[in-house]
C-alpha cells in the first residue's frame, strides 16, 4: 500500500508498505493532495521507509583497475628505449669529436675552424637534411617513418614548412656567424632549446592560455624563457671554454636574458599562420643579440 501524509508544519512523507497494494483515492482527496503538494516549496524532501534497491553502476569497477604489469613494463620499455637512443647519439657525437681532435693533435689532419671551407663543410649535414625534406615533402620518395616522426598531422606537406625552416636557419647560422659570434649560438639555442621545450611543456601543462593568443599557454612561454636562457648560457660557456669567445659574463647574462624575453614574446604572438615560429623566433633572436653584442 502507498501512503501519502502531510502536516502543516512538517515535510511531507512518502511511505511504501510491502507487499504493494492498489492505490485508491477519491476525487476530493486527490484534489486536496495536489493543492498541498503545490503549497510546499520545491525543496521538500521525501522520506522512504524502504530504500529502493541499488542500481548497478553504469561503469564497471574493472575500468578503474590499476594498470597491469604488462602496461607498466611497456611504458618502462619506451622510456628506456628513448633514454638509450639519446645516450647512443651523445656518445657517438663525442666519440667523433674526440677522434677528430686526436687526429688534429697528431698532425694527421689540418683543422682550421676560421676558414670559409670549414663553414661550408659544417653546412653539409643540414644541407643533406634540407634536400631530404624537399624530396619527401613533394612526395617524390615515400618514407612513412620520417613523416610520422617529424610531422604533427602525418601530412608530407608539413615537411616543407617548420622542419625545412629549421634546417635553413641552421645553415644560415653556420655560414653567417660560425663559432666566433654569440649571435648564431643564441639564435639556435632559442629555436632548439627554448621553442622546442615550450612546445612539449605547453602541450602537457598548458591549461591556462595567454589572453591575446589562445593557442599559446603561460606554461609554454615560461619554459620558453627559462630553457632558452639556460641553453644559451650553457652553449656560450662551452664555446668560451674552448677559446672561441671572450665574454664579460655579468653583462652577457643580462644580454641573454633580454634576448630570451624578446624571443619569448615573439613566440607567443598570434602570427603562426603568417610566419612560422622556426623563422620568427631565430630572426628576432638574431636581431636582438646582434644589437646587444655588436658582432
Describe the overall structure.
Strands 1-2 form a two-stranded antiparallel ribbon. Strands 3-4 form a two-stranded antiparallel ribbon. It contains 10 helices and 4 strands; from the N terminus they run ββαααααααββααα. It has 4 domains: 2-53, no CATH class; 78-111; 123-175, no CATH class; 177-295, no CATH class. Residues 1-51 have low confidence and may be disordered. It has helices at 27-39, 69-105, 116-122, 124-137, 144-150, 162-176, 182-205, 218-241, 249-268, 277-293; strands at residues 2-7, 10-16, 209-210, 213-217. It is globular, with a radius of gyration of 34 Å. It is mainly alpha-helical and 295 residues long.
Compile the SSE list and pairings:
Elements: E1 2-7, E2 10-16, H1 27-39, H2 69-105, H3 116-122, H4 124-137, H5 144-150, H6 162-176, H7 182-205, E3 209-210, E4 213-217, H8 218-241, H9 249-268, H10 277-293
Antiparallel strand pairs: 1-2, 3-4
Helix pairs in contact: 4-6, 6-7, 6-10, 7-8, 7-9, 7-10, 8-9, 9-10
Amino acid at each position: 500500500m502507498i501512503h501519502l501524509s502531510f502536516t502543516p508544519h512538517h515535510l511531507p512523507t512518502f511511505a511504501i508498505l510491502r507487499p504493494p497494494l492498489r492505490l485508491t483515492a477519491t476525487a476530493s482527496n486527490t484534489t486536496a493532495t495536489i493543492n498541498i503538494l503545490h503549497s510546499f516549496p520545491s525543496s521538500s524532501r521525501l522520506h522512504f521507509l524502504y530504500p529502493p534497491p541499488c542500481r548497478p553502476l553504469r561503469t564497471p569497477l574493472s575500468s578503474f583497475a590499476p594498470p597491469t604489469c604488462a602496461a607498466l613494463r611497456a611504458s618502462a620499455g619506451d622510456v628506456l628505449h628513448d633514454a638509450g637512443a639519446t645516450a647512443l647519439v651523445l656518445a657517438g657525437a663525442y666519440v667523433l669529436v674526440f677522434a677528430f681532435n686526436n687526429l688534429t693533435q697528431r698532425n694527421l689532419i689540418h683543422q682550421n675552424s676560421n676558414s670559409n671551407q670549414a663553414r661550408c663543410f659544417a653546412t653539409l649535414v643540414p644541407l643533406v637534411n634540407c634536400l631530404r625534406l624537399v624530396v619527401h615533402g613533394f612526395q617524390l620518395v615515400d618514407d612513412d617513418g620520417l613523416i610520422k616522426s617529424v610531422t604533427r598531422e602525418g601530412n608530407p606537406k608539413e615537411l616543407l614548412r617548420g622542419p625545412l625552416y629549421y634546417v635553413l636557419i641552421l645553415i644560415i647560422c653556420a655560414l653567417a656567424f660560425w663559432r666566433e659570434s654569440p649571435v648564431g649560438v643564441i639564435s639556435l639555442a632559442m629555436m632548439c632549446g627554448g621553442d622546442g621545450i615550450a612546445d612539449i611543456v605547453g602541450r602537457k601543462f598548458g591549461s591556462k592560455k595567454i589572453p591575446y593568443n589562445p593557442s599559446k599557454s603561460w606554461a609554454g612561454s615560461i619554459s620558453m624563457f627559462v630553457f632558452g636562457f639556460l641553453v644559451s648560457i650553457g652553449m656560450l660557456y662551452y664555446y668560451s671554454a674552448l677559446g672561441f669567445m671572450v665574454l664579460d659574463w655579468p653583462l652577457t647574462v643580462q644580454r641573454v636574458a633580454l634576448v630570451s624575453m624578446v624571443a619569448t614574446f615573439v613566440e607567443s604572438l598570434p602570427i603562426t599562420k603568417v610566419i612560422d615560429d622556426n623563422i620568427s623566433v631565430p630572426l628576432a633572436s638574431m636581431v636582438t643579440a646582434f644589437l646587444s653584442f655588436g658582432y
